[in-house]
Amino acid sequence: MIYKTVIGLEVHVELKTKSKMFCGCSADYFGKKPNAHTCPVCLGLPGALPVPNKTAIDWCIMIGLALNCKIANFSKFDRKNYFYPDLPKGYQISQYDQPFCQKGVIALSNGKKIGITRVHMEEDTAKLTHQGDDSLIDFNRSGVPLVEIVTEPDFETAKEVVEYLKKLQQIVRYLGVSNADMEEGNMRLEPNISLRELKTQNSKLKSELPNYKVEVKNINSFRFVEKAIEYEIKRQTEILNVGKTPVQETRGWNEDKQKTVSQRIKEEANDYRYFPEPDIPPIRLSEFQISNFKSQMPELPDLKLVRFTKNYGLPRYDAEILTREKELSNYFEEAVRAGKTFEVNAKQITNVIINKKIDIENIMPAELIKCIVISKKINILDNKKLSEIINKVINENPKAVNDYKTGKVQAIGFLLGKAKQHFPKGDANQIKIALEMKLK
Amino acid sequence: MKINVPHVAKLANLPLKPEEERKFEKQLSEILNYFEKLKEVDTKNVETTSQVTGLENVTREDKAINSLTQEEALSNTKSQHNGFFKVKAILED
Question: Cα(A162)–Cα(A156) distance, rounded to whole angstroms?
Fold first, then answer.
């Protein structure tokens, strides 16, 4: 039987705002003393009033725009109800039917377009640590702003998923709104995976989705993404091959066992009874405000890559490396500006940055140019000119040449000295090698 | 209207005895029937809303302010451990 993999993604990105989503507690919780960044709002105490963080909403909209979404003129928050100890209120403030951003699209390198269903704003939960018969709760993370990005089930391979994730990570880092580090948990991924049977190999039954899907959680590194997806494809294929349908459920990636494990216990009451959050008035955005956001968007990686290949005449490969991180791309452009006065061109700068792995935090762009200028003077002698001079030296000093050829190897020092007179700053080693080649 | 009381109780995280389930089924039905009365109102020209204050765009600037101390945060809990709230273990798998 031939199956086609169908994968949709939910990605949570934790914003790096100073304060939490609905209260003024510090959102910087990583490695802090437990329960030291809390207040009545994020502890879920009765009577506390949540007030949304304006910067977090702005950043959510910027992410939506970067993913080519439509921004809602009218939006609201909703309560998602469920019981779990990491959720002190008994509900999470999220967005249900009127999210800030909807219907976006992003293109992969193979030209395939991935539909973005929605981008919405919500709050993070507390952190649970399991210890024997107890679970310990730290509410420092409770209420930290989270942006959830949901895609259409458009992915067909683990490779596409990884490319999309790297792209998303790059975009939010360019926007400067999240560190998007998977290991530290500020970018979390939940793929929904299922397999569709193909009647013939060429049939394209896009509208016909499988009648089940398996959600996989606990994938906290790029390395696990591919492994978890490949494992699920294999597991589901085996079930389908014996004529059964995989159970619709949530599974967790277990790195020790190298497999996904059922987490059905948490899934049981999947009935969230969303309703509008009565404590938070809705958000209305005028067309003027939305176009303002658009004009304030920084240059994003895809466009920068194209500009680098066009304006600087760089190969795509080089431009890709230089634009991978915003800091490096800015460094490169500063170096290009500084290089103009010294006739150091973009390609030379690119080669040095990429091949020498320049430490951009400690070497200023202007310093880099100075280094390139100096190294150019010492090292790179024009081979044609060098060859002419060496011929000249050989012709003018037949005795030394003869001495060398009859075994007095040290005679080369005399010839080298003569040649060096023509290149006072030239690299002696390069001249010596050229000389030896000629004398062979 | 038939109400699945065990399901509702589960969603509300309430353990109910069988006799309580029967009692609540009757009460919940009565409440729903009472709300049916609202259907008598003509709402054809009324815009749906979940807010009555008329307020919009109430937000705060992104400024971090002082939080409760760890001691204050934990002061009302019966069970704590090394600065954490402590609950009975949650089964993960």
Answer: 11
